[in-house]
Amino acid sequence: MPRVTSADVARESGVSRTTVSYVLNDKHGAMISEDTRQRVQAAAARLGYSPSAAARTLRSGRSDLVLCVLPNWPVGPVLDTVLDELTRELAERQLSVLVHHGRSPLAELWRAVTPRAVVGFTEFGAEDADAMRRAGIQVLSTSLDDDPRAVFAVAQSRVGQLQARHLADTGHTRLGWAGPAEPRLADFAVRRLTGVHTECARRGLAAPVVRDVDLDADSAADAVRAWRSAGVTAVAAYNDEVALAVLAGVRACGLSVPGDVAVVGVDDVPAGRLSDPALTTVAQDAAVQARAIATAVAAALDGSPPPAPDPAEVLRLVVRDSA
Known about the structure:
Blueprint: H1 6-13, H2 17-24, H3 34-47, H4 53-60, E1 65-70, H5 77-91, E2 96-101, H6 106-113, E3 117-120, H7 126-134, E4 138-143, E5 152-153, H8 156-169, E6 175-180, H9 186-202, E7 209-213, H10 217-229, E8 234-237, H11 240-252, E9 262-266, H12 270-274, E10 280-284, H13 286-302, E11 315-318
Helix pairs in contact: 1-2, 1-3, 5-13, 8-9, 10-11
Protein name: DNA-binding LacI/PurR family transcriptional regulator
GO molecular function, one term: transcription cis-regulatory region binding
InterPro entries: HTH_LacI (IPR000843), LacI/GalR-like_sensor (IPR046335), Lambda_DNA-bd_dom_sf (IPR010982), Peripla_BP_I (IPR028082)
């Protein structure tokens, strides 16, 4: 079906295309009667007219896009939900989201689409950030660390600290760490493991016994045997997927959870709620993250100071049967 154009609206309402343009773009100073204005708006509604994004960009020199730049990370459930929620939040402000994965050059894209704002999920290089600012683009970034320069930061080390704290509080003194086999997750994994190390050191416990675990029972069973040989009674896993693999590995070794090995994951995925036993985990509130980013984008576009984010609202320990 062909796209409805402003010419179609002009024919439907019996006015010129110039008048349609003035009405639909809310141009001030044009001498247009209220009757004509209502007739044009009614015709546009009947025909289902929506203005072309390209045309709006040509008129204003700026698109209605917010460009979200992801590093070379696999998109897991939390990040996927953050992007969905951010898209919804910004749509309420008449802004659209375009997601760019860091595996291809950024400069070519932002010059082509001319976004109003660019949000980096890690810090931009100085050259890229300066070039975008010179072009009049608002540049914002989030962080995986405590960083006052970021519009929002969820320190991933706190995730590991929450896991280790819960395990230590429930009587475990020798902990294991189940890391991901996927190297592209290192940005998160290193920080979460640092948090486990920090909490163990704070309590005078030995450093965690670290093993990477593929998402299969054989790899997990090898890790479980290594942990048991080292006296480990509880495991902090990189995320719920890895934690579920550990559960399978424990079963393959003829052991039980939490009787022989307690397990804590991260992300609170639905499968973890349905596992046997149900998975204790650290939930990350994606809606809070998205709302904070959207609010910071709106403030930047309005020229207002960004609100102070509250990352403490994001992380929450969910205790179930596995630990």
